[in-house]
Amino acid sequence: MSKRIMVVDDSRLVRVQLEDILKGTDYEITAYCRSGEDAIAQYGEVAPDLVTMDIIMQGMDGLDAAEFILKEHPDARIVMVSSLAYDDTFEKAKAIGARGFVDKPFHQEQLLKVFEQALS
Q: CB 3.0 to 4.6 Å from 8: which of 33, 43, 96, 97, for a disulfide?
C-alpha cells in the first residue's frame, strides 16, 4: 500500500517536480495545498502519512502551519521543503517537531531518504 503525501507549496513547479520524482515509488500525492491555512483545514480530512511543507507562502508560513498541525495532530509527520536553508530555520523546524528538512532544489535520492527517516 502506498504512503499518502500531502504537498503544501504555493509553487506549481514544485508540485510537478514532486509528482515526477515520486512516480514508480511507494508514495502517492493525495492532496495539494497552496497555503498553510489550507493545509490546516484539510489535514484532518486527508489524514496523510506524510506532509511536505514549504516555508515561504502567502498568508501563514509553513513553520507556523506545521506547528499548528502538530499541536492538533501530534502524530503528524511533516518534512519541511524549502530553499530557506539557514541554521535558525533548521532549528525552528526541529523544535516544533518537523521530522526532516529538504533543500530546494531537491533530487529523488535525497527526498526518498528523508521521507523514509520521517516515517520510521
A: 33
Taking only the tens place, the pLDDT of each residue in 83-102 is 876 668 888 889 999 999 98
Site of grid cell 507562502: 57
In the structure, how many helices (H) and strands (E) does the chain have? 5, 5
Query: Beta-carbon neighbour count of residue 86 at 10 Å?
Result: 9
**What's the whole-model pTM score?**
0.93
H or E segment to which residue 8 belongs: strand 3-8
| Of 37, 57, 43, 35, nearest in space to 6 by CA | 43
Closest CA to 76 of 87, 86, 65, 84: 65
Alpha-carbon distance of 19 to 70, in angstroms, equals: 25
Residues in Cβ contact with 34 at an 8 Å cutoff, skipping those fewer than 6 apart: 8, 9, 10, 57, 58
3-state secondary structure 77-111: CEEEEECCCCHHHHHHHHHHCCCEEEECCCCHHHH
